Amino acid sequence: MASMLLNTSISYCCYFPSVQTKSKKTLARPGVKNIVLVEGVRTPFLLSGTTYADLMPHDLARAALQGLLHRTGLPKDAVDYIIYGTVIQEVKTSNVAREAALGAGFSDKIPAHTVTMACISSNQAMTSAVGLIAAGQCDAVVAGGVEFMSDVPIRHSRKMRKTMLSLNKAKTLGQRLSLIGSIRLAHLSPELPAVAEFSTAETMGHSADRLAAAFGVSRVEQDEFALRSHTLAKKAQDAGLLQDVISFKVPGRDIVSKDNGIRPSSMEQMGKLKAAFVKPHGTVTAANSSFLTDGASAVLVMSEEKALAMGYKPKAYLRPTYGTPKVLERAGLSMSDIDVFEFHEAFAGQIMANLKAMDSDWFGQTYLGRKSKVGTPPMEKFNLWGGSLSLGHPFGATGCRLVTTVAHRLQKEGGQYGLVAACAAGGQGHAMVIEAYPQ
Question: What is the DSSP letter of 35?
Fold first, then answer.
């Protein structure tokens, strides 16, 4: 969970008032191709089991792709490649990128692949897009992510699967009857997917609880941070700042146009909830954790040259790498240079522990090989439009939301540099510097 430290369009589409960007050095380098974010969209993020319940993952991904096409007016044949991130795959659409792309009307001649890297899957989709463009293989790549927790694949037990496969191969009635006779009641127990690491069998909630305990993050601190997230998200939603959200007509149901998990509460109400993972004394609860979410996102990434030739006004430059300290060092920036911070909020305890680690000389020296601490983001610059705790966290889609939010906040606030960071299962993390495109 400390991994975010360790490893780590067309201009009319945005309705933010023009704010003069602060004048700082640019991260552009001679001879290095500039890669830009042209536009980013997402479906509303919804609590699993609600309005999207009867859909499939590729339906949401297709909606995000169609929303991107509609907002940018992008000719479908101008895209060279499509990459999507997802975590819990629907077995019928294992390459969901391809199915969604075909459904959205893209040519079958455009390659598409799906990447999985836990909660940073769409981050990696964007990084792969940047790599393809930097290598000169592509000029325009659509990246995105999708997660659909309303209907996850549930398997038969392994013994039952082996029996069923053997039945399929059985040649005689006797062989079939013998196999059927070998089935026991215990074989019928289903295997439910768990948000857990295979190597440790530990869920992310348990990891967050241990991390919070290790860094002395109290239950009150976690609840306060979660309440902040929901309050800021509600304020941003009411002010119309969440411009990346597209309206989506759900077949057979209503048009969905906003996230439905934003629920400001009170410290008193949050304090009544019991520990969700480490019982009874854990500090991670349903109130200070991100919730199971359905949603999809999509971004258009292009070489600056191609974007300008097509008449687009990019939103931002993308400068990706892994890990907060590394990304700052490679960019030649310090924490004070960053105007906008957007960190993934898997759990309030995970965020607070990371902030404490970033503010610790001991941690910096012991685990990062630094002379001193990384430093903490000023809270007046941090996740000001809410975060995963309130907006929702479709595992494979969050990364694109983070990057698009940074680009929009830089435009709104007049900043030049933004920093995205996110943790992922397996002790992994991703960080990216986003530089505002000159207005």
Answer: E
393 in active site:
yes
Set 13, 119, 138, 400: catalytic member: 119
pLDDT tens per residue across span 67-101: 999 999 999 999 999 999 999 999 999 999 999 99
Q: Of these residues, 230, 393, 408, 430, which one is catalytic?
A: 393
Q: Find out whether 101 and 93 touch, Cβ atoms under 8 Å.
A: no
Q: Note the CATH architecture for domain 3-21+33-151+289-436.
A: 3-Layer(aba) Sandwich (3.40)
According to the model, what pLDDT value does residue 320 have? 72
CB-count burial class (<10 Å; 0-12, 13-18, 19+) for 213? middle
Tokens 């990371």 locate to 354
> What's the pLDDT tens digit per position in 383-407?
999 999 999 999 999 999 999 999 9
Annotated catalytic residue, options 13, 14, 138, 423: 423
Q: What is the pLDDT of residue 8?
A: 33
- Written as six digits, the tokens of 335 are 């924490």
Our answer to whether residue 423 is catalytic in this structure is yes
Tell me what the pLDDT averaged over the chain comes to: 93
DSSP conformational letter for 127 = H
Segments making up each domain of the chain, as ranges: 3-21+33-151+289-436
To the query of whether residue 13 is one of the catalytic residues in this protein, the response is no
Q: Is 22 helix (H, G, I), strand (E, B) or coil?
A: coil
